[in-house]
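Cont'd.
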Amino acid sequence: MAVPVGRRAFLARLGVLGVALGSGALLPRSVLAAAPAGRSLHELVSLVRPVLAELARDTMNGLAVFTCPGPDSYSRAQGTPREEPGAMEAETPDFLLEALDSFVPFPDQIAQPVGAALVTGLSDSEVPLDGLESLPAELRALDEALAAVLVNDATLPLSFPVAGMLNLMATRVNPAAVNGAFHSPFSRLTYEEKAEVFRLIEGPDADLVALLDAEFPQPLRNSVSGLLRFVGGALIEFAHFGAYSEYAVFDTDSRQLTGRPVGWRLTGYQPDGPVEGWDDLIGFYQERTEVSD
Amino acid sequence: MRDVIIIGAGGGGPVVAKELAARGLDVLVLEAGPRHDDPRQQWTSFENDANNPLTGYFRLGPSDRSRPAWFKEWPQNSFVWQLAGVGGTTVHYYGNSPRALPGVFAGYDGADRDEYDVEHRFPFPYSELVPYYEWVEQTLPVQTAVMATKERVFFDGCETLGLPVQTTKTTLEPSYRPQENAILQPGGNAGRTTDTNLLHHPDATGCTLCGYCFQGCMRPVSAPRNQFAKRSTDNSYIPMALTADAWADGGKPIELITDAYVTQVHAENSGGALTATGVTWRDNVTGDSHREEARVVVMAGGCTENPRLWFNSGLPNPNDWVGRGYTDHFFDWITGVFDEPTGSSKGPGSAARLDYPPYGGLENVGLPPALQAFATTLSDSGIRGQYTNGRGMTGPWDGAAGRIMGPEFKDLLDGGLDNLLNVLVITDDDVEPQNRVVPSAFPADEHGPVAKVSFPRRSRSARTNRNREFLARKATELLRGAGARKVYRIDWAPLILHVQSSMRMGASEANSVLDADAETRAVRRLFIADNSALPNAVGGPNPTLTSQALATRTAERIFQRYFGGDPWVAGEAPIVSTDARVSDRLAEIGY
């Protein structure tokens, strides 16, 4: 049985189809085409998982430069290149991935349905899928592997549903973003289009809420719209914090800096390195050293 | 059986602990987070290492930083800045210690008496709390802040507003002043040099103007723990409580157990009244549960954790006010850009303020870069120039309110961080029942169902909104008066950082959890001694000092009511927390 067109479009919008099968794809078509003969689902899952991780990373690149652009290709793609360093030089994508996948105390019981919603949801959008029309077998294998990842992974990396949401909304804002440079549709957007994605998430967009709602039992269902407002804000705030922090040059063993943080270079903070104090004392206002009633 | 078990070693619990330890009671303090007993080895002063809410040494999570933080549900764009660990949120506070406005107390008769949250006043007059304020102000101690460049710039703006300078502890009218800070004034080389070799104690004493208040105070280098500049409770009340026998006649040191997460308060019927009998806590390291009995239990886990613990313990909630009436000062953030240096990243986090009763107040705030970036993106008004999220207010500031990020933030920083001056808008917000903590429907963690903190979007009272809009305009006027070339309004999403009144004290049984002595109405021998006990948002001043004064009063009431003791605040003189006897004993016990 062939995978329905709507399903294929949905996978394309998530970015999964492109990263797995598109031009510059990370997964050789032969891998999927060979299934199922001689290849277990388990093997397929182990092949798909790093592909999804790469998609998540590519999406975080697009998010990081949205908050702090620099001289990199992602900043150029969004139309805001800068000469001075930015989030890529500050290793903000690593900061985000590490936080999302290892430290966000987000219950798996919530992450799983969000991930499931984004992978199993259907789409009626008319997204053009150049060059991907004749791959029913590969698509089905990919689809099975995705479902298996969601069902079998004890802990779903949170970066996957986050990236999926950004990419899904990216293709809503600009359907042409299913194809192009990078793996992530979100990373293909202009700065203005990325802002539009966040407008929809923070709204929150009724279609997105409906998509997620379907996966949640009561009483959680009513939490979805609030969760989206929170996630929309937190992604920007946290990425911006990370871009201007010492993350990339902090050595956790010595607890020292190994270089000057990008954020310090951009802001002129502590020009001669960390201090124990400043010589900025002027005195007491109106020379009043204490007050009482 | 203990005399008293105190849940939480934050801003309020250690106050009760120190006062009752001085009276010779057997006090156990249980703290869910880390001990922070060797800051020079455990802290760094770097922003991500310190303040990352997921991985930082100041986070809501277990001591073991390789393990995830603890989850809370926030059903809106907001950030509840809770911390676990000795000192609680005082480890990152700025030491700002203004008193509450007299207008929020019973019996206030000023001309503006109808302009406050009149339904939720303190159940006693301001004059009754004054001796407790004085006791805490001398113990910490609280001192008039010095002026550095960012204060000079702030005062330049204040001087254009036609307001008087406040020269009293009590705020009587709209006026500005240096902060009264729980920060030791600079002495010796402090504030006068950047040479690390000259900034060791005792060549330098008090505040070195390092600018790391939010990353924890461990300066001057080599000072005894109780003589670090900022008087967070890890540097003041906890050291006193741990050494009570060294400085108090008949005093008994507390026992402090950290990584001890209290999961249940036990109560049983006794003499016809439900009465607290003890607690169960979970050891975060071993996972083991422990139970201990006490004559009195004091909850001091904060505005979010106290209601959660109450619900998870199955305690009664007859008037449905547990967790309700949460106030947060509905902050806003106004940033000015200057051509001249402002010294924004230097000195205490905030050392100048303007109080504007009955609206609330303003204070200057200096931040390092990552927190500045966070502060300019925490908005409910979308991204400036892109979308407004249905808000994007316009006014005397430049353009619409909203996030400054991406290329615009980089352009803003063109002159450097030290050409900015931030003003925090601190709104006197109303106690409103819908702002509340409830058990989340999301999955429970190892300590039981987690808290859901709801501040329903955009449904604040008319008075709260009026106060915030008034102050945002006043802050803009101040910054322009100080010479700002550009002024930006962020329209912060709820940043739950000043927290008050979620287990509020009140005169009426209909809308309060605590009686006028801070004992819970539903459970005898159960008291609350942190910001959640406050009846209201205290008029806008930073709440910690008022909580500590109230906790001192609560300690006296506990001693009188259940231990047959006499009050002491009226008749004795307090010992200052920097006392050398405390230092000497700390050196012996390794804190």
